Amino acid sequence: MSGVPATSDVPAMSITADSIEQFLERLASQAPTPGGGSAAGIMGAMGAALVSMVCNVSLGKKGLESIETEMLAVRAEAEALRAHLTTLVADDVAAFDALMAAYKLPKNTDDEKQQRAAAIQASLTRATLVPLACARACAQVIALARRAGEQGYKGVVSDAGVGVLAAHAALRSAALNVFINAPALRDQTAAAAYLEEINALVASASLENEAVYTLVRGRL
Amino acid sequence: MSGVPATSDVPAMSITADSIEQFLERLASQAPTPGGGSAAGIMGAMGAALVSMVCNVSLGKKGLESIETEMLAVRAEAEALRAHLTTLVADDVAAFDALMAAYKLPKNTDDEKQQRAAAIQASLTRATLVPLACARACAQVIALARRAGEQGYKGVVSDAGVGVLAAHAALRSAALNVFINAPALRDQTAAAAYLEEINALVASASLENEAVYTLVRGRL
Is the dihedral of CA A69, A71, A74, A78 positive or negative? Predict the structure, then answer.
């Protein structure tokens, strides 16, 4: 949950205060934001919410007293991740808008060119780190979905399954934005490190997603 | 888009009028609805919205005049599917709530037992057909995401990628509810047909999801 630079001058819209229908309208529109990055944040947050739901239903169920501590621990982590991913929805919009604004800066003089290039690089870093943070958080949601799916109340195990599917789709979605923005960074060492990390996250998440889905189907 | 029985006596809540944050709160809560089925509908609708976005950005772009007819056709289908999937969010809640209500019907007399069993079977049919309708719609969204990803403006091709990931996760999520409810149907011929259809949808969607993701990554 670290490594995301501070918010730029471009204000982040509080998209998550929109109704679902309004959000879908804005997503479908010609406007570049909200786009896939925001959809990724929402899918990740839905994954975390579903993990919490499995914990909440399991807590207090007769016969499941022995998993209470585990369900409380999973829920605490899931709720922190849900809050983090919800914040990233607006951060993604702000990062993308800042990048577009940087590209539109004047480039008539050498001074302006230098300032524009620096602004683009700073915005590209942010537009790489926000989806990377989203992918990291989704990997943690997937791990929590496994714990909820393995031990949670059988009657809601399918919700843990939907949670892992949502978090996995979110992780791969966020990865697309890292794949786009990291290679344009001038700092090639940083770019390589970001790409190495995201490739590792995508690879392990895909294996884990299938493992948890299979586990959930076995408990239906 | 057919085969879903008429709404039961249990009113469908218009969840999609909730803010995203409110929806996430309700998803995380102990209440059985909204749950994974509603999350599936929203993911599917986000997938359709992202396909529309790719079309909307591509329409009117210089150099892309030759794909205008195709983008208009894809957008028209995507918008119809978005509306359908948005409706299914509330339908899923209504179907699940009706099933729970049927299980709670009195069963003291033979007459009551018979009425309860009939109500459960009717509700189970609906709780199978709603997610099956969701999965069918998501398969169509995936096909549209391919067309948008193949031909749409390169600058938003990642949004087609997120669209296919969202629709695929939604389809597999909806499938879990078919796997749960269909086997409990007394009409084993109908149950077998529903399971055969959902298994075929899951299998082809998984292949298509990877194909479109690879296609999108190649155009980034």
Answer: negative
pLDDT at B148: 98
Contacts 24+ apart (CB under 8 A), B205-209: B205/B138, B205/B139, B205/B142, B205/B167, B205/B168, B205/B171, B205/B172, B206/B168, B206/B172, B208/B142, B208/B143, B208/B146, B208/B164, B208/B168, B209/B142, B209/B164, B209/B165, B209/B168
Please indicate if any CB of chain B lies within 8 Å of the CB of A35: yes
**Phi-psi group of A106: left, alpha or beta (phi > 0 → left; psi -120 to 50 → alpha; rest → beta):** beta
Using DSSP, how many helices (H) and how many strands (E) does chain A show? 6, 0
pLDDT tens readout for residues A139-156:
999 999 999 999 999 999
The tens digit of pLDDT for each residue in B107-161 reads: 999 999 999 999 999 999 999 999 999 999 999 999 999 999 999 999 999 999 9
- CA B154 – CA A106 distance, rounded (Å): 25
Would you say A19 and B22 are in contact if contact means Cβ atoms under 8 Å apart?
no
Phi, psi (deg, nearest 5) at residue A97: -65, -40
Alpha-carbon distance values, B169 to A45, A124, A210, B17, B138 (Å)? 14, 29, 12, 23, 9
Please report how the helices B68-103 and B110-151 are oriented relative to each other, as an axis angle in degrees rounded to 10.
Answer: 160
Structure tokens at A219: 């408990």
Residues from chain A that touch B50, judged by Cβ atoms under 8 A, are: 27-28, 35-36, 39
CA distance B127 to B140: 21
Q: Which residue has the tokens 């749960």?
A: B180
Nearest to A172 among B32, B165, B173 (CB): B165
- pLDDT tens-place string over residues A105-130: 999 999 999 999 999 999 999 999 99
Residue A19: strand, helix, or coil: strand
Cα–Cα distance, B77 to A211 (Å, whole number) = 34
* Distance from C-alpha of A132 to C-alpha of B136, rounded to nearest angstrom: 32
Candidates B18, B21, B36; nearest CB to A159: B36
The pLDDT value given to residue B13: 58
